[in-house]
Amino acid sequence: MKAPKEHDHENHERWLVSYADFITLMFAFFVVMFASSQVDKKKVAGISVAFESYIKDGKVHNQDFQMDPSKAAAAAAATPEQGLEGVSRRELAPVKAELEQELAGEIGDGKIALSLQPRGLVLSLRESALFPAGSDALSPTAIPILAKVAAALRKLATHPVRLEGHTDDTPIQTAQFPSNWELSAARATAVLELLAGKFQVAPGRLAVAGYADYHPVANNQTSEGRAHNRRVDIVILSRSAAEMEPRQARSAAASLPAPASPSAAEPAAATAAPGATVATPHKEAEPPPSAARSKSD
Fold first, then answer.
1. CA max distance for the chain
2. Which helix (H) or strand (E) holds 206?
3. For residues 230-240, average pLDDT
4. pLDDT exceeding 70 applies to what percent of the chain?
5. Cα–Cα distance, 67 to 196 (Å, whole number)
6. Which residues does residue 114 pair with via DSSP β-bridges, in sequence order?
């Protein structure tokens, strides 16, 4: 007679193995999350400055660099806007001091205001210093002021310059200026033409923008505020702000292939600036064959 078979004892604690694996994975996950959140700001600032020192003007420069710990700490604590403003001050503060000395009379009369901003040095020229009311013709008193500004611009040959026209919110509607948009752009263009033509500032550095009355610096409810808003801002861009400006447009356009010459059957298209209306030659419609036969009969 066979002996009864003994059954293996069932282990009711196998779940502890899976639970231990789960706890281990969770522990490893949170350790990695904690480690990734602890970033050394000083080291990050040092790496950023070192990277900028190696790459300048789109080129790689081989040079040794060691970040000063005090500068790294200051760079880590500064916000991006504060960093840009600090760069602008270091670059353009001497120019601002020189212009404040040369234009002391105009600044005292309230015709010009100078300010350092994160984007660069801003020279705000009031309407009373440049233009008659409602006109884009430069007044004779504007010539010596712009001559001093042009002398400073020529010394900063690597800085782009933006000329920004502004008006107050008083509507204008004339044959020459249907709105404040045209007036603000025309005034900025008039200053550009004088700087590039008479005072030999490189035109490739200059750009024009018209903002009408949408960027006031004072309240338009008072006559004094409106006078402050009617201005042309000459903005000498800092190097960091200039990095965001288009610089390769001319070289890219020069590398494009020349367009094919138009055939005799197709008239050449007129060239115009973007947004301009182009008048194309009108081609008279040919009469239908029935009309042509009736004329020949």
1. 133
2. strand 206-210
3. 90
4. 63
5. 41
6. 123
Burial letters for 19-39: b for 16+ Cβ neighbours within 10 Å, e otherwise?
eeeeeeeeeeeeeeeeeeeee
Looking up tokens 């007044």, which residue turns up? Answer: 139
The DSSP secondary structure of 208-235, one letter per residue, reads: EEE-TTSS-SS-TTSHHHHHHHSEEEEE
CA-CA-CA-CA torsion sign (237, 239, 240, 243): positive
| pLDDT higher than 70, residue 271 | no
Q: Tokens representing 62?
A: 């081989």
pTM beyond 0.90, yes or no: no
72-99 pLDDT per residue, tens: 555 445 444 444 455 556 778 888 888 8
∠ CA 163-166-169, rounded to 5°: 170
CB-based contacts of 113-117 (< 8 A; 24+ apart in sequence) = 116/85, 116/88, 116/89, 116/92, 117/85, 117/88
pLDDT tens profile 239-261: 878 777 776 433 333 443 444 44
Where does the pLDDT of residue 275 fall: very low under 50, low under 70, confident under 90, or very high at 90 and above? very low
Element (H, E) at 43: helix 41-54
Please compute the mean of the pLDDT values over residues 211-218 and round it to a whole number: 94
The residue type of 34 is F
